[in-house]
Amino acid sequence: MQTKDIQSDKGIGFAVLFSVLTILAAAWMVAAGDQLTTALSFAVAIIAACLAVVGAQAFW
């Protein structure tokens, strides 16, 4: 009897999605003019980077 391994690409998808979001937020952080927008962009970039790593580890 063979067992069937089902592999998913969710880990790659999460990593790519949140990596792109991280890059966009980091770019917005550099381009933003005021301090509040820079801080919010930095927070979004850090959270998205964490989610990229967690998503890749959880679904790989």
Automatic annotation (TrEMBL):
InterPro entries: DUF7525
Domain of life: Archaea
Pfam families for the chain: DUF7525
TM regions (residue ranges): 12-33, 39-59
Protein keywords: Membrane, Transmembrane, Transmembrane helix
Protein name in the entry: Uncharacterized protein
Biological source species: Halogeometricum luteum
